[in-house]
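pipeline: protein-struct stage 2 | run 1193 | Metallo-beta-lactamase domain-containing protein
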Amino acid sequence: MRTSATAITKKMAAQLVHLPEVERLSPACLRILGGNPGKFSLQGTNTYLVGTGPRRLLIDTGHGRPSWITALKRALSDEGNVTIQSALLTHWHPDHVGGVVDLVRHSPGTKIYKRDRDQNVSMSEAGAGDWLDIEDGQVFQVEGATLRAVHTPGHTTDHMAFVLQEEDALFTGDNVLGHGTAVFEDLQTYLQSLKKMEGLVTGRGYPGHGAVLPEAKAKVAEYIVHRHEREKQVLEVLGSAKGGEDGRGDDATSRIARPDCWTPIELVKVIYKAYPESLHGPASAGIVQILQKLRAEDKVVSENDDKWRLQDERSSL
């Protein structure tokens, strides 16, 4: 029986730690949840109010859910009627920029920053034409907090991480999450960004989704190892025969009949066989990224991007 998306979402939610709607994480960092929990957004998008003085920085704005702007207003009031000097958007995805409309309505003087400011954002959306660009290495400062922007493409081309210098901490955006692994647009670029992020701080990580990372450096290193393990799995399955519990066939018949081409979804069904079928689609997109990287390294070849085999194999079809 196929498991429903609702059942999967509930099961995943049960595996996640509870996060309060508003929670102080450090003297200079307050997390406000976006009010949009889900299969991919986990407990919801994390937005962060950063600083200790009367003017603060905001990282991301959630999906535009009414509960988020209500929680943000309450937090601003509880902090002593502080205002938001600038909002820094980690990337263009709707669950990170969707609340800009409500933010600007509440705080018209707030400056909105995003890398490649016009990319993937309608010029009519929340006055996007007035948004400011974020430069790699740009510094944003308020009382109690200095943030240094670092361009870390991979999840998206405009993705930015931010180093909180006072805490030696890192806002990781969606490149690194508080639970599970992240999706990416380009694997090679993503791995390069992870290597860059690994050397940025030794303290905590504040992710775009999920709980605080006790050690950002260790979690980034874990992500890098995981990606290499997935790459190794793809190569192993491409070198195996279809059929059998582990995807291999060792007898003479299997070797003679051995097909040398695999589709991405066939690879997914072997590598992700322990995962719900509803997750195979997103997993397939990641497998395609791995295959494209391996092709660029001359380790695999493809037929119309649909069937793949190892570079040194010869088709027996």
